[in-house]
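To make this tangible, we now present a fold written out as C-alpha cells:
***
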Amino acid sequence: MRFKFPFGKTFVKLYVSFVLIIIALMTLLGYISYNLSGKSIEHEITKHNIQVLRQINKTYEQTFKNVENTAINLLKNQSTLNFINESSDIFYSLYKLSEEMSWIVYNEDVIKDIYIYSFNNRGVFSVKNGFETDKKVIDYHWIQKLHAGEIGKKLTRTNFKEPIFLGSRGGNMVYLQKIPLIGKKSKGYIIFVLDEKKLWESLSEIVLNGQTQLYMLYENGSIISSNQPVTEHRMPAHFMQKVAGSKEGYFFEGEKNKTLISFIRSSPNGRIYVAVTDLKEELKILNNIRNSTIIIIAMMSIAAIIISYPVSRKIYNPIEKFLTKVNKADPDAGISVGQKKMLDEFKYLTTLFDDVTVSEEKLKGFYNKNKTLIKEKIINDLLRNRIDSRAYLMERLHELEISLTGRDIFVMVMDLDHNEELGNGMLGMEERQGYLNRIRQMAEEVLADKMDLVTVIDTDQNIAALCNMKENMHKSNIVALARQFKQQVFENLNMSISIGIGNICHDLMDVSTAYLGALRALKYRLLVGNNTVIHVQDIRKLDTEVLYYYPVKKEKIFINLLESREYGQLEKLLEELVLEIKKKPDLSVECVLQIFNRILSSAVNIVLENGGTMQEVLGSKTNIYTKLAKNETIDDIKAWVLNICKKIIEYLHNKHNGQKNKYIEIIKVYIQNNYSKDITLDMIAARVGLSRTYVSKMFKECEGVTLVKYINRTRIEQSKAILTGSNLSIREISERVGYNNEHGFIRYFKIFEGITPGQYRGCSQK
C-alpha cells in the first residue's frame, strides 16, 4: 500500500486540530482523575477518623451516663438515706453502705472512689477511709469548694438532676450529685471520683491506622493523654485557634509532609479528641497514580497521532473533490472566477458557511414570525393527546421557551354563550373572532398573576387555557379565579361566557385527560345554564351509574298534539318536560340529549308518515340531531324544538289542505264499496296512507261528522232500499249492510230515522 501524504492547508489544519484536541482532552481527563483520586483518599481517611472520634466521644458520654445511673441507684438505697438523715441505726447503715459502695468500685473500672457528704453528720463517708468528719478532710478539693460556696452558687442554677462536673485533679475527674434529687433544700452530696487515664486507655485501644496518633485535650489545649509518647504538654496556639468554636472538623498542615488533623469536642465535659494522621503513604500512592496517568496520556497521544490521519483524510476527501471542481471552473458547481482565485481553502469554506448562516438567519426569522402559531399547534396537540413521545414534547417546549414544569397543571375551557347565534346572526365571524382574541388577552393577563405559566389558544369551538400553578391551589381557589375572570369579561366586553374546569394533573402526558374533563364540565352547561363556571368534580355521579329517565307518556302526548297541530299545547308540554328534567339533578347530559333525540325522532316520523321529508320542512338539508347537540342550555333546546314543531305544523297544514278533498273522496268511495264488511279506522288509514288519528280528525273537519257516524249513516241508507224492495228479514238485512247482529242495526236505524226498521217497512207498504 503506497502512503500518500497530502500537503493541502485544509488537510493539515484538520489533522493538527484532531491531534491537539485529543491530546488536550486526555491531559484534562488525567488531571481530573489525579485530583479526584487525591480528594477521594483524603475524604475516606477524614471520614474514618471523624467516625472513630465520634465513637470515642459516644463511649465517653455513655460512661458518664452509667455513673449518673449508679449515683441515682445509690441515692435510692435505704442505707444512704439513713446516713444522710442521721438515723439511730447509723452504724448498721454505714456497714451496708460500705458493702454497696465497695461492690460498685470493684465492678466499675472507671470509678476510683465514692464519697457521701452529709450536712446533718458534718462528715464524709468513703470506700477507702470510711466515716470522717469534714474537719479532718478539709484538704479535699471538693470539700474546699463546698466550704467556699462555689458549689452552692452553681447548684442554684440547675435542676439538680444532672451530675455536676467539678473539675479534674491528678488524672481524676470529680462529679457531684445533690441529695435528695428533688427539692430545693439539700441534705448532702454524693461524689464520684473517676480515673480519667484509665478511661482514656480503654478508649485509645481503637486503632485508626499505623500513621495516626490520638490525643485527649483540655479546653485550654493541655494534653491529657495520647496513644503514643509525646514530648509536648500542650497543643500549638495555631491549632487551638482553628479548633476554637467548632464542634468537629478537620484541616491539613504541611506542604511536603502533609498531615491530616481531625478533631471533635465532647459535649458533657468540653474535652477535645484529636486524630493526627501522617499522609506519607497516601502521597506515595498519589505519586504512583500521577506517574501512571502521565504514561497513559503519552501512549494515548501517540495513538491520537496515528488515528487522526485516516479520520482527517476521510473528512477531507469530499472537500478535496469540491475544491477540484472549483479549480476546473466546473459550471455545475456554480463557482465564480473570483472564488477560484482564493489562496486559502478555509477562506472559501468560510464564505460558504457565511451564506449558510444568512439563510439560517432568514429561516430563524420566519420561525420567530410564526412562533405563536407553532406554539398553539404544540399546545393543541398536547390537549388532544396527539403527542406520544415525552422527549419530543420536552424538546419542542424548550425550543418555544414554554416552561411547563409538569406539576400542578389544570385546563380551563371558555366558550361564548349563545355561540351559534353569534356565529350565524348577531355577529359576523370576523367580529366574533375579535371578541375571542380579546378574551384570550384578558385570560393571559388575569391568570398570569396567580400562575407560573398560562397559555391560551383557540380550539375548534372554544378557548382553552393551560395553566401551570406557582403553588398548590385548592379547587375552590381555581373556581373563584374563573368566576372573577368571567365577571371581568362581562364588564369589559358585555359578553356572557361559561367556563369548564378539569382536574389538576401532575404529568404533562396527562394534560389531555384534564382537557377532556374541562370539556365534559362545560358540556353540563346544558343543565345548569349559561354564564356559569363548572368544575368536573361538581358533576354528580360522573363516574358512577347515573339516573336514567324517559317521559314515555309525554312522548305519546307530544305525538298526538303535533299530529293535531296544537302548537299552544305543545309549548306547555315542553315547558313541563323542561321543569321536570331540572328537578332531576342526577340526570346526565347524554340522558337529556337522548330524551330530545327521541322526541325529534317522533316528529320526523310524523312528517314521513304524511309523505314529507325534513328537507321540505326546513327548506334545506340539515342534520337536526347535530344541531340539537350544539344547543348550550336546556332552555335553548326547548326553544329550538318548538321552532322545529312550528315548521312541521305549517308544513303539514299547507300540504294537507291541498290533499284533503282527494283523501275524503277516496275514503267515501272505500266506504261505499265496503260498507257491508267490518270496516275499521286502521283499514281506512291504511287505504289512504295516513295515520289513523289524522284521518279521523281530517274527515270530521271536512264532513262535519265522524267516520263512525258516516259509515253507520251509509249503511242505514242502503238498508232502507232493501227494506222497501224485498221481503228479507230484519236479521238478514242487518248482515247485508255490515252489522254483526240485528240489535245493533235496529239501534242505529232508530237513531238516524227515529223509528225501527219494522216500522219503516210498514209505513212504506201503506
Q: What stands out?
A: The chain has a mean pLDDT of 75. The longest strand covers residues 111-118. The chain has 30 helices and 16 strands.
